[in-house]
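User: Fold both of these, please.

Assistant: Here is the first one.
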Amino acid sequence: MLAADTFARMAAGVGTVARCAPATVRLILTAFATGGHVLLEDLPGMGKTTLARALAAVTGGTARRVQCTPDLLPSDITGVTIFNERTREFEFHPGPAFTNVLIVDEINRTSPKTQSALLEVMQERQVTVDGTAHPVPRPFLVVATQNPVDLEGTFPLPEAQLDRFLMRLPLGYPGEEAELSLMRGSAVGSPEDLAAVLDSAEMARLSDVAERVIFAEPVYQYVLRLAQRTRGHARLRAGVSMRASIALCQAARMYALTDGRVYVTPEDIKALAGPVWGHRLVPLSGAATAEESAVLLDEVLAEVPVPVPHENRG
């Protein structure tokens, strides 16, 4: 299938500069093609920023980076209106948000006020400054990073902000050969040197193809039963929302395309449940860590019966 070949070429390009697992690359490409944002949660020095820049390169887009600090202002992301004395008019000066891939480094180190400035652009693909809406380029993806260990001086993301991210992904350590290669000083390519595999128009066509992927009724019912089980879990204060169920279905269609299929299987749902739903769970103890979410979702997946194979293709 042409879509699968496109994903394979994008993954190959990203893999030449980003030293992370192929499964992670597949997931982040799925998120971007679906039109969803990604929260990369891992330790410093794991290549999170390089991965985001490589993603922009293979999709023929631009990337800009914002380093979050406690004194970062909303206008430092969205832009500002300035009075031009020569023309005697106010002019809008776009901020870093006007790009295809916006890298928001250490998002939990900036204030809640600045974090909230991202809500509109992540949901509506526009920023409103002084009452005027300004659309950002398409496609548009926020790749935010945060360190799950160093929490001193941070501002945890509220549930409304977390819900705007399609996936939360860890990168993990590179494989032995990749790490040895880096230790030996072997040359690593630069994201800027990567050739574009597709453009924005072709990305839109991928979305059109994904809409035609078969999603059988038993698989819809499977997603619903999983969602309902999280809502009634004894160790959860809140399960996943309707937005989360819809997001999982949309991502599953694109995920199937990456495998060259035109139908979604329960295995796709299982593979995506953690990345798409993990950060949306609200345990009784507070915000869910990636490890706690994984345990809870494993319990849910084990308790809900899987549709039989012949039911899955509609």
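And the second sequence with its predicted structure:
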Amino acid sequence: MDKSDTFKLANSQANFTKNHFLAWDKEYTHLKWGGPAPVRDIQAYLLPGSTVLDAGSGNGRYLGELSRHYSAVGIDISLTALNGSRAQLARSGRFAEHLGASISDLPFKGQVFDGILCYGVLQHLFIKERESAVKEFSYILRKGGFFFFEAFGYKDMRCGGEASIPFEEKTFARQNGIIYHYFTIEEVRALFKGFGILTLEDVIKEKVFKGNVYRRHLIKGVFRKT
């Protein structure tokens, strides 16, 4: 491979990395509101009135419920998602701050949040982006603050497909331009090595249909900044 080929490959990889963020705005033009999602797991750790960030808040399924109990802020890379979230919260008579930003580069001062919720988001980043995001989370979370994590696990029936560009283990590209990474418990431990681990578990559900086993695999955890 000569220098021009190397440059073309690097440029292609950079464009793909940028596009996997931009793809979310298109995705949210047709994603339907799925109703509010419970936040009981968060309530078990955080006192009412705490400051909470929904990192990758999407169309506000968790953010709306968080705003009932906490001083809540939602960030997302998709402005379309944020607009939908604002409208949904307004219809419910609730309020939360909405900001457009990447979780790998957060627009907050240090130690301003008591808790951070990040459900189904880190699975859509490349490894360097995930590492940057966790560093950002550690910076904005107060000492003793809680981080609530959920992402796809590698035993999930959807783990597979076209390899991502750049290539990373257990990371795949979908036709919509969004990437999917499927975690192992060991990866999650390594990613959050700077936090105290309160809970970390595999959540596996299986259904049998016409003799075939269909498995859904999530990894869930609660971490604390020490």
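The mean pLDDT is 91.
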